[in-house]
Amino acid sequence: MTPGTPGNPAAPVTPGASDAQRLFIGGEWVAPDGGHYEVIDPATEAVVGWAPEASRDQVHAAAAAAREAFAAWSRTPAEERAAVLGRAAEVMRRNLVPYAELAQAESGATTGTARGMQVGVGAARFRRYARVEPAEEPIAPQINEAGPFGRAAVMGALAVRQPVGVVTCITSYNNPWANPAGKIAPALAMGNTVVVKPAPQDPLSVYRMAEALQAAGVPPGVVNVVSGSGAQAGEAAVDCPDVDMVSFTGSTAVGQRIAEVCGRGMKRQLMELGGKGAALVFEDADLASAVSGIGTTFSFYSGQICTAPTRVLAQRGVYDRVVDQLAAYARRLPVGDPRAPGTVVGPVISAAHRDRVESYVELGRKEGARVVTGGERPPCATGFYVAPTLLADCTTDMRVVREEIFGPVVAVLPFDDEEEGIELANSSDYGLIDYVWSADVARAFRVARRLRAGGVGVNTVGRNMEAPFGGFKRSGVGRDVGSYALHAYSELQAIVWPG
Predict the structure, then answer these.
(1) For 456, phi and psi rounded to 5 degrees?
(2) Residues near 11 by Cβ (< 8 Å), separated by ≥ 6?
(3) Which of 49, 58, 125, 314 might form a disulfide with 319, Cβ 3.0–4.6 angstroms?
(4) Is the pTM value of this prediction over 0.90?
(5) Quick check: is 80 catalytic?
(6) Where are the bilayer-spanning segments (predicted)?
């Protein structure tokens, strides 16, 4: 879920009053100071709608509204907060089709992805955090001997999770429903208030999420949404003194800049950044399973996903078969209109991002990689399409192997033995999710434990949505998903008393 550099946004325009999206600040729909900018359909290049351009003052006003709302919301019983989230999930479920149509128009997702993995997962995450979990954990009593602090005593203790305060949520363009929901829902469940800064390419869906929350009865100021085509709104949402925490999904480079600002203000951070997932395919692996799993890089969000297994390490005995089967798999994937029933690979988010991905493929050629399939622009009349591309005979020093491309491009490298495979996998600056395919389950788990990644899939690219999610190294800071997200959006307080 790592967005690249946004495309060149259109200049502010003045749409008709009925078409103009407004900011959501303090429970009110507010006209933007900076006018509006066009949101473009990546498949048709038509205008989807006009997103509001928030000024720095308006972003700070949103944070001030969240600060004012925090005291009452944080004291609201957890059951009541959960009920609001549950009602919001129901609103999303009822409006799944129109919400998905908008998400598809903004992001270029296929129909199945927009309905199931975007709006469907977004609603599911709100339902998940409508379940109340204990915020207190008893700690075993401790016997303290007599000393300078007083007589001997048995000391009881309780660890209590308290909300952090005002949380800025900066979300990615590849999933305008699941990603914001994964931040907003647990943050609200813990008693925080939020300022949401959606990705500039597809912000309109996040405003529909705000409408669902408003319909569900969220109090004014608890949720605020501000958008912008450039860096101004995001920067204001990070450096504002009213903000206590920043939750960011995006590129490592932007994450580093956010971390610097947060460091100056001692703001808490949750960072889900880039990835260059390694898929180790051993000689005894089920190659059909490995190829279909790795092939999701070509199809799922057109490769615009940080968890994708984009760096394939194939043991030498099966290297040629892996390359041949991946190439055949990629060639079979229908590329085109994401609204068409048979389409598997839709467009990437923008013309600028398409150019970036294509430049990486050309760079791979110059570095000596062999383009087995893809590498050309599909013959589509409109839209920002990239053909599923397989690069073979790669080496670890190539930039196409080391850097996140964020598109339907897979690089394949050979390795000889288990030690070399682990060494190659760990040679990356990233460490989000890696994968191991082997019929020897003992070896697969042994290798998994030695990989420097926040998650490892053994013979699968599937996810357990209660398992912690986050990265090692330059792939991020902190963990979310399931109960771990509640931990991420809370501060831990100790209460101690004499027994």
Answers:
(1) -135, 130
(2) 37
(3) 314
(4) yes
(5) no
(6) none
